[in-house]
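Structure ticket #2291
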Amino acid sequence: MNESSEWIIDLYERHARTFDRERGRSLFERGWLDRFRTVAGPRAAILDIGCGSGEPIARALIEAGHNITGIDSAETMIAICRERFPAQSWVVADMRSLVLRRRFGGILAWDSFFHLTQADQRAMFAVFAAHAAEGCALMFTSGPRAGEAIGSYQGEALYHASLDPDEYRALLRAHRFDVVDHIAEDAICGGHTVWLARSDGSGPAASGPVAC
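Resolution: structure written out below.
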């Protein structure tokens, strides 16, 4: 099943324009984004990992006054973001090997992190910590329990995985993040399982300036 996770970059690249057209703009995520912004601070620079085409989430954060650095492995997704929001920073990169040498007040991995294998998810917590400024808000979505699942997009296999909630808590603790809020299958957020945490600033950090 893990092999399907390696097809996701190509899948999203080939279907980027379709994804953008079909992506809902209702911003049902707004409640969680508001909590995220409260932890990060009203003007925090935000690293959006798996930013997609930048709508509606990046747009909402930009309009709220945040500077965004958006990361996606699909070149066409990043091209769309650059067309829409040329004043922001957009980078084609694989989150698993991300090294920006900057730290951020907020790190977001919404509906992206859960496409990684369980092993890659474990390794991502070091990436999060390396880009987190003191007090950084980290928010990501996962599955409600440990396991792997294959969904479908445009008739093609779409891989998802999750760790056990206790393991997420342990990984957050090990990388100096405190859980602020967590809801499994949040009924008012489309059934998403959401984690919101805050860095205490003492974990490993990438060299370079804090983005502000």
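Closing remark: The longest strand covers residues 132-142.
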